[in-house]
Amino acid sequence: MAYDTNNVFARILRGELPCAKVYEDAHTLAFMDIMPQADGHTLVIPKEAAENIYDLSPEAAAALMMTTQKVAKAVKKAMDAPGLMLAQLNGTPAGQTVFHIHFHIIPRAAGIDLKLHARAMENPEKLKAFAERIIAALD
Ligand code: AMP
Predict the structure, then answer these.
(1) Max CA separation in the chain (angstroms)
(2) Full-prediction pTM beyond 0.85?
(3) Tens digit of each residue's pLDDT (9 = 90 or more) over 52-81
(4) Where are the chain's structural domains?
(5) Ligand 1: distance of its center to the CA of 118 in Å?
(6) 14 exposed, middle or buried (CB, 10 Å; 0-12, 13-18, 19+)?
(7) In what order do the strands lie in the sheet with 42-46?
(8) pLDDT tens, 3-42?
(9) Which one, out of 99, 101, 120, 136, has a CA that is 20 to 30 A from the CA of 4?
């Protein structure tokens, strides 16, 4: 499938849609998931136009993983998360719903089940507050 330049993350990258931004550099962007599976659920995307892991250049893959590690540390600290799950879905059968590659960073704690994937919209003010906590925890 050809990369859809109007997918929601491409539109966020172009500034056409808002996001609760956590981190940005020349190659990557991190922001809060609007339908989080747990408090602090954060997404990391490359600026390169790639749909999935197969399309991504090695350089963009390296930048994506470096930012994912940096933001994961901040999410763990900010949310005081005992566990942290990374997820990256490729293709509809795997559950991918936005066709611009991204890593999910999801805090986990014993006894707290994940909410359903991409189902319930979170209050934007709450997302902004989590983003501010995570920004403050970045090294
Ligand atoms: P995936 O199913 O792995 O492609 O995940 C896509 C994720 O993007 C889901 O967790 C959605 O909740 C999230 N999402 C969809 N639209 C937006 C948006 N405008 N801003 C932030 N997150 C979004």
Answers:
(1) 41
(2) yes
(3) 999 999 999 999 999 999 999 999 999 999
(4) 8-137
(5) 6
(6) exposed
(7) 21-24, 28-32, 42-46, 103-108, 83-87
(8) 999 999 999 999 999 999 999 999 999 999 999 999 999 9
(9) 120
In the predicted structure, residue 117 carries a pLDDT above the cut 90: no
Report the C-alpha gap between 134 and 22 in whole angstroms.
7
Domain 8-137 is classified in which CATH homologous superfamily? HIT-like (3.30.428.10)
Ligand 1 geometric centre to CA of 9 (Å): 8
Tokens coding 119: 């189902």
**Cα–Cα distance, 27 to 130 (Å, whole number):** 23
- Using an 8 Å Cβ cutoff, are 137 and 77 in contact? yes
Q: Which residue has the tokens 């930012």?
A: 67
Which pLDDT belongs to residue 136? 98
Q: Which of 43, 105, 127 to mutate to test the pocket of ligand 1 (most atoms within 8 A of CB)?
A: 43
Q: Which residues line ligand 1 (CB under 6 A)?
A: 8, 17, 19, 33-35, 43, 89, 95-98, 118
Query: Which residues form the catalytic set?
Result: 102
